[in-house]
Design goal:
mainly beta, 8-stranded mixed sheet, 4-stranded antiparallel sheet
């Protein structure tokens, strides 16, 4: 297992507030902190305007709904990595972060993809953004009307506190510092060995491979900064952390 990367960045803001609340547009969110947990409760509505749903790539309608998750208040590295969770975290505005998808290439489907994993090629959210009906905030809604982000956008950053945009499932902070954080995931060379064929262009999650040392972040999009491990959102794949080095909250191990 690879070790967490150490990253030296001047002026990186780290927060540890006791309680926060915010309201803009129809957003309603409360963040509370106890000795053991940080809990975020919201109405699932962002601080910015959302796109039109349904649209040509997304048949679902937005619905405000209660979102509540808790993460460890004092996260610790465990020496192991958790790779599959129901979400990659939650923003300070109370919106879930879910960069991946549950859809796979499926030539039998009219849309070219479905929930059938037989092909082994999982659709990548931002790689297939138009087909999935993303709005200008790199987000869309699922079949329950739950709005969620697949990548960073200006709208998401409206609710940032310094460089902190939210929390990962294991309680470590997620930061955004633009190009100063460089992912170590790279597109594979050549073409796909099986259908759908074609070059590795990022349409599918399997088009990407982790190349240690090619960026300044580890495979989970994290690094140790000023003695503290944190995750980063990046402008390129994986966009948000998709594996986690701490003890993941049970709130992220089931249905999001």
């Amino acid at each position: 297992m690879t070790r967490p990367i150490r990253l030296v960045l001047a002026g990186l803001g780290l927060i540890a507030g006791t309680a926060l609340s915010a309201s803009a547009h129809e957003n309603d969110v409360e963040i509370t902190r106890t000795a053991s947990q940080v809990c975020i409760t919201s109405n699932g509505t962002p601080t910015h305007d959302i796109g039109r749903f349904p649209n040509s790539g997304n048949p679902n309608s937005f619905r405000a709904q209660t979102v509540r998750v808790c993460v460890p208040a004092e996260p610790r590295l465990t020496g192991r990595v958790t790779r599959r969770t129901s979400a990659s975290g939650i923003t300070l505005s109370g919106i879930l972060i879910r960069p991946g998808t549950a859809d796979f290439y499926d030539p039998r489907s009219p849309r070219g993809f479905s929930r059938d994993p037989a092909s082994g090629w999982r659709l990548e959210g931002m790689g297939a953004a138009q087909a999935l009906g993303m709005d200008a905030a790199n987000a869309h809604v699922d079949h329950r009307g739950l709005y969620h982000y697949h990548a960073v956008s200006a709208g998401l950053l409206e609710a940032a506190q310094g460089t902190v945009i939210g929390y990962a499932p294991d309680g470590f902070e997620i930061h955004y510092i633009g190009a100063n954080a460089r992912s170590s995931w790279q597109l594979k060379p050549g073409t796909r060995a099986t259908a759908p064929g074609g070059p590795h262009d990022g349409t599918y999650e399997q088009d990407w491979v982790h190349v240690a040392g090619s960026g300044n972040l580890d495979e989970c999009n994290g690094a140790t900064v000023n003695g503290r491990y944190v995750y980063f959102a990046t402008d390129t794949f994986p966009f948000f952390p998709r594996c986690f080095r701490g003890e993941v909250s049970r709130d992220f191990l089931g249905r999001p």
